[in-house]
What does this fold into?
Amino acid sequence: MAIKIKNGKTAIEQLTAHAFRESWQKIYEQCPWAAPALSFDYVSIWYEVYRQRFSPILVSKEGPNGELLGVLPLAEQKDDGSLTVAGANQGEYKVWLAPPNDGSEFITKALLLVRQTYPGRTLTFMYLPPMTPLDFLGKDMVLKTFCKVRSYSRPLLILNEAALKQSLRKKSNKSRINRLRALGEINFVRLTRRAEAEPLMEEIATQCDLRQGAAHDSLPFSGDPVKRIFYITLLERTNLLHFSVLKLGDVVIAAHLGLMDRGALQIGVFTHSVTLAKHSPGKLHILYLCLLLLQEGATVIDLTPGGDEWKERFASTHDTVFSLTMYGDHRRLFVAQIGESVRIRAKFCLNLAQRLLVSLGASQARVDHVEDLVRKDLRGSIRRALMRAWLRARPDQLFKCEFSSTPTVSPTVKLSREKIADLLRFDPKKNLFCSRKEFLEDACERLARGQHCYTLIREGALIFCGWLIERAEEALESDIDSGPSIPDNSVLLIVAPMNWKRKPEDFEEACLGQMLRNARLVQGASRAFLRLHSCDFPSTRTCQDLGLERIS
It folds into this structure.
């Protein structure tokens, strides 16, 4: 029984055949290492939603009666011709389906056929579940040469009702819940209908992008316009998506969207409100989610690999999953091997540097900063990295505005207040002061402290960002660690340095004027202090024109 490849329209026609769908579902249920992202419903919906970007490829093995004996769903990216397992970066597990006794033979022939049909293409399976057969790699010389396997630790949370209830009774968690209840009614619900889920996707997407941008310099929803359509379609047509939200009144303060099958839930899109971070809405969401899953008969939450600290805090055990990469040719294999060697040595040197800093008494924040510099600045150009280092070393300027003696400026532009989605429009290519990750990290910390955000968007890009700090406890250390102390009854304004090209006339005066007007409205405040970067020359001139006193 030969292995066949069907692509494009031929593959789409096969997906519409009812017998093919039933046969796929049967083999999915038989396969011990099957993952929800390999179910027929998931794959067919992904092909449909992402049809503008990917062309479907089906590698399959059929029996004498046309029954499916193995399937590997792939896709070819239309813009560059690269190959991916169906689902691409949606869903954690990319694997093939086959009966338990034929898993190795099927994938061996399938991969060889893929190499023959699409020469020079690299294909990665990220990740392979624990029971996936990998013994075939030692039997075929071509695959042994061009395929590389890596292992990863996977954290798992085993659901235990007694332990969960005990955790919710802890003083710290009860305090978090009570503080939230003082702000409004708390509701944890699972959503099952499009009509109730779709209106919440905008807020969930913003929370997700802000969190992922600060942690990994990634904007999953902003960078993928149809991602939310994909999730809503999954919810509407299948039982695979487990969609839950934690609400404070009518506002989503935490949410989770993950695939569920065979008594296990995979952590997928997990978000929480940054402005309420001090109340730990994400942690409370996980605890409520665990209790709901127990009621629904689930036994485990797959926290998925990745090394995130919060996953390790929740994990009760670990197992091992794998990645498999089949390189298209010797050049790509060689480049990958060199890259891996460099990464290993760089990680070793980084660990040495961090241990040295610890031995010298450096703070953990400083140690983490060294790692950030390696991960962020070395990716960009040397010129940009050096420029940012020089700009960071420059001291800030501090101006004082006495409300009683400074005239009010009538604003000519309207800034948005607390519009967090605007922060995602930051363009790192037009800003020498910081990277996108640094900007979003700083924004998340300020929002968590309770600072008020002011933004302005022009031509789809963020061109102004300012922060209003009403109380000293809301300020970051970097806001008050140098220069004169800021007295009580004062408001602190922070202006984030931005690219100032192509801004409207009198732009700085209008923006700073509106922030100063709002500062006057803070109860008990008699003055404002305005902190600017020393290289923000337009804002500096504006402060001088407004008659503000420069004190440092």
Remarks:
- The longest strand covers residues 147-158.
